[in-house]
């Protein structure tokens, strides 16, 4: 192309025809011209002239494009104002949601990006509230969200021309293809908001409008943020809007609930922060919500976030990859929020003495919980370490508070512990009334019941329920199965209670059998380890083995104490309520209540090293008997446990 243009210029400069120049510079041109003209009816001279003109125009367009870009940026720098928003900022998503709800549908924009809305964000709720469909399929299918793609979106706001540029930071490098046609945004693109004029005040008003729009859409919802792994790092990226749950719908001790709300309200008071700062006290607050599964620990967290208008940051500890990732997530928290640490048992269980290096942890894990890859020290550092932020509220949930490490629940980290017990008769009555009370906003869903009849059915329902036996989740599931027949729900409650009691007794018997089987298995492994140590005549190792046997015995005592009731740091909680950890005493040592066991322990307990009554071979033979009696590979349902088997206490 360049040579053709050069030849054309030479022909124009010398006055010679283009055909003569091509014949002189290109050998065989005359033959080719005759061939093309005879068989293809094509004049090569005319084709060369057309290519020359096309090349000249292309070169001119490239020059004009570069000149146009210079003029554009010169005009932008002199006659527009702009504000940039980072991709990780919450305002970035709020601007896109506002454009998606207010601009794209009105202007009929032709170039968009689409995604299925796995996240129920502000724009989705805006469209849902204004255009409600009457079919059933719209709840089954994930709706589609349309947002601006790469490039510039322009609109008029308050008589000012605005341009919002979505910048592609992951270029596909497709030559000559614009970004909006080459790839789709991934949600981590920065924005540049520009306004025609030399003042940023219109842009500030626009940004405030975007925030007000988002806040208005969230008035009836709680913003729940969860962590997400993206580009090999964790960040608070997933946003879920949940309807605000009233505190009245969380059923546990009303006095403890009122004290908890008052304590959080006092903490959020601006004067409280000044008080803490003036006295050098870290401005933090921590609460432990503990109780059996189904008592409403997570529901209480959602209700508190909605009551105080705070965002809830949900962190599932078993899903955190390392302590550094946990620290990164806590560093990104805003100054005022609620952090919910679910399954704190995964990292907060007391440090146990290791039995053997090859012990199967899966068989002895508590309730089948998976262990977190972050450590207890990492959790402690982010809660109240040097780099921990102030102003946030930490809520922890636990199903086994009596097993949590004391370092985790000491005063300063956990200020109050709230025990959520099974439901009482009064709470069951309130749950029944809440389930069937008419809702003025949905008259077509209301039942034709008089107030007196509803109260009578509520009393009949609650009187059939024993106090502190069933969880709120169990009763709620039962009522949902009878949501259209309150009379049937009240009349059949007695039969349901009897059936649930039978199931619970069967579950307890099976759990006890499994616990005994695991205890026997641990004892067998311990005695085998002790026998091996005795064979080696290593007194130091023998002392360590004896310590491990004692640890097993103490652990079994703890299991027996757990069966009597939940114990937290030596204190047994028998009532619902809120415990202030600053008033907690030291641990209480449990004593054996059976005189026979004390007598047996005092008469039969000997030191296997000092006594020398049995040599190592005899000890090894005796330690293998439990395995023969138990058939250690058998399941708990198949094995018959011999209660006369020598225990670890007898060996010590």
UniProtKB/TrEMBL annotation:
It is found in: Mitochondrion inner membrane. This is P-loop containing nucleoside triphosphate hydrolase protein. It catalyses: ATP + H2O = ADP + phosphate + H(+). The keyword GTP-binding does not apply. GO terms for molecular function: ATP binding; ATP hydrolysis activity. InterPro entries: AAA+_ATPase (IPR003593), AAA_lid_BCS1 (IPR057495), ATPase_AAA_core (IPR003959), ATPase_AAA_CS (IPR003960), BCS1_N (IPR014851), Mitochondrial_chaperone_BCS1 (IPR050747), P-loop_NTPase (IPR027417). It is a single-pass membrane protein. Residues 283-424 form the AAA+ ATPase domain. Belongs to the AAA ATPase family. BCS1 subfamily. Residues 355-366, 635-646 have a biased composition (Acidic residues). Keywords: ATP-binding, Hydrolase, Membrane, Mitochondrion, Mitochondrion inner membrane, Nucleotide-binding, Transmembrane, Transmembrane helix. Pfam families: AAA, AAA_lid_BCS1, BCS1_N. The chain crosses the membrane at residues 44-64, 71-87. PANTHER family: BCS1 AAA-TYPE ATPASE. The keyword Nucleotide-binding applies. GO terms for cellular component: mitochondrial inner membrane. It comes from Hyaloscypha bicolor E.
């Amino acid at each position: 192309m360049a040579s053709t243009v050069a030849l054309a210029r030479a022909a124009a400069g010398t006055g010679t025809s283009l055909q003569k120049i091509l014949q002189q510079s290109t050998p065989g041109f005359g033959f080719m011209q005759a061939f093309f003209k005879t068989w293809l009816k094509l004049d090569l001279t005319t084709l060369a002239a057309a290519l020359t003109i096309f090349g000249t125009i292309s070169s001119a367009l490239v020059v004009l494009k570069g000149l146009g870009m210079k003029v554009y940026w010169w005009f932008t720098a002199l006659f527009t104002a702009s504000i940039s928003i980072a991709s990780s900022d919450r305002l970035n998503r709020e601007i896109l949601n506002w454009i998606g709800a207010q601009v794209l549908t009105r202007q009929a924009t032709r170039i968009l990006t689409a995604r299925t809305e796995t996240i129920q964000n502000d724009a989705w709720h805006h469209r849902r509230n204004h255009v409600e469909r009457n079919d059933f399929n719209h709840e089954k299918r994930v709706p589609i969200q349309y947002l601006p793609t790469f490039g510039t979106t322009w609109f008029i706001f308050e008589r000012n021309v605005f341009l919002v540029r979505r910048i592609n930071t992951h270029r596909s490098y497709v030559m000559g293809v614009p970004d909006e046609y080459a790839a789709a945004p991934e949600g981590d693109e920065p924005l540049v908001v520009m306004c025609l004029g030399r003042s940023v005040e219109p842009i500030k008003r626009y940004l405030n409008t975007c925030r007000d729009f988002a806040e208005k859409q969230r008035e009836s919802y709680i913003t729940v943020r969860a962590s997400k792994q993206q580009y090999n790092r964790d960040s608070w990226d997933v946003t879920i809007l949940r309807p605000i749950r009233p505190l009245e719908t969380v059923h546990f001790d009303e006095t403890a609930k009122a004290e908890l709300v008052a304590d959080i309200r006092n903490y959020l008071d601006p004067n409280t922060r000044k008080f803490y700062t003036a006295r050098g006290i870290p401005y933090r607050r921590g609460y432990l919500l503990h109780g059996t599964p189904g008592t409403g620990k997570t529901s209480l967290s959602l209700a508190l976030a909605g009551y105080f208008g705070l965002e809830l940051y949900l962190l599932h500890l078993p899903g955190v990859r390392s302590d550094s990732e946990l620290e990164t997530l806590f560093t990104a928290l805003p100054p005022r929020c609620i952090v919910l640490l679910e399954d704190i048992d995964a990292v907060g269980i007391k440090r146990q003495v290791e039995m053997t290096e090859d012990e199967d942890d899966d068989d002895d894990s508590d309730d089948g919980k998976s262990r977190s890859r972050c450590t207890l020290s990492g959790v402690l550092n982010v809660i109240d370490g040097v780099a921990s932020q102030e102003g946030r509220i930490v809520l922890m949930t636990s199903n086994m508070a009596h097993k949590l490490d004391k370092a985790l629940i000491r005063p300063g980290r956990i200020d109050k512990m709230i025990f959520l017990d099974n439901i009482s008769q009064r709470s069951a009555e309130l749950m029944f009334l809440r389930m069937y009370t008419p809702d003025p906003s949905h008259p077509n869903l209301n039942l034709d019941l008089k107030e007196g009849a509803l109260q009578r059915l509520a009393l009949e329902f609650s009187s059939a329920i024993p106090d502190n036996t069933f969880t709120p989740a169990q009763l709620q599931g039962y009522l949902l199965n009878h949501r259209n027949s309150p009379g049937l729900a009240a009349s059949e409650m007695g039969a349901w209670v009897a059936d649930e009691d039978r199931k619970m007794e069967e579950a307890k018997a099976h759990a006890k059998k499994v616990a005994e089987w695991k205890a026997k298995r641990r004892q067998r492994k311990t005695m085998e380890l002790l026998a091996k140590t005795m064979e080696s005549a290593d007194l130091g190792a023998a002392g360590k083995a004896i310590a491990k046997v004692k640890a097993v015995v103490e652990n079994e005592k703890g299991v027996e104490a757990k069966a009597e009731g939940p114990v937290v740091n030596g204190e047994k909680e028998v009532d619902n309520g809120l415990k202030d950890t600053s008033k907690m005493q030291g641990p209480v040592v449990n004593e054996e209540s059976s005189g026979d066991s004390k007598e047996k322990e005092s008469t039969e307990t000997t030191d296997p090293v000092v006594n020398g009554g049995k040599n190592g071979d005899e000890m090894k033979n005796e330690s293998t008997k439990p395995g023969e009696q138990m058939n250690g590979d058998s399941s708990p349902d198949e094995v018959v446990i011999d209660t006369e088997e020598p225990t670890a206490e007898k060996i010590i």
